[in-house]
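Quick question, first post here. What does this chain look like in 3D?
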Amino acid sequence: MPKYSYVGKYTDSGSQNSFYKVKGKDYGFKGFPNKSLATFAHAVQSHLAPLSAPKVYSPVCRIRVPNYFVGPGYTTVTQMVLSDWGYLTEIAKPYVCKSEECDGDCACCDWCPNYYSIQDLLNEMHDAGIDYIDAHENNLGYVKRGKYKTIVAIDFGRESLTPIEEKDWPEVCWDGANDMECCCDACYAKYGESEYA
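> Answer (accepted):
Ran it through. Tokens below.
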């Protein structure tokens, strides 16, 4: 069984994903607040990989991960628990903009040194059927393709993109994700009309 190390519950820019790095590997497990969000992100990332996104190495699933807590006598106790729903994916190195003038919103700043690379990425994603609307510093990364470092998108949440053909993508349900309002058919049936009036 592979060993997992918990990288962190990311909170930058409203993200609610967790990420576990598999020790000694160049991939990790990306977890989501619910199965619906994981399924949508998996479909989009699988569609865009390997050109515009990190590679995907598994279907949507759950894995056993360590959970640490303080036990009797203030000793640290470790238990293996099931993770959130997610999938194994290639690890991208974080994209960091070195321009002080654009504040990490490089897709909108034509004076940013990476502006044209990011525009090429957005055009590539558009050609693949995705309008990516959230191309800021925290949602981009680098992966190695052959000898070269390639910029890719790393956030495939429904809030970050608009599929050009809606019929090709799974319906997204926000139920169970904190601070999100969902109006999908399943949530509408579960919570009733008053929730969305």
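Residues 102 and 109 are 6 Å apart (CA to CA).
The first strand starts at residue 4 and ends at 9.
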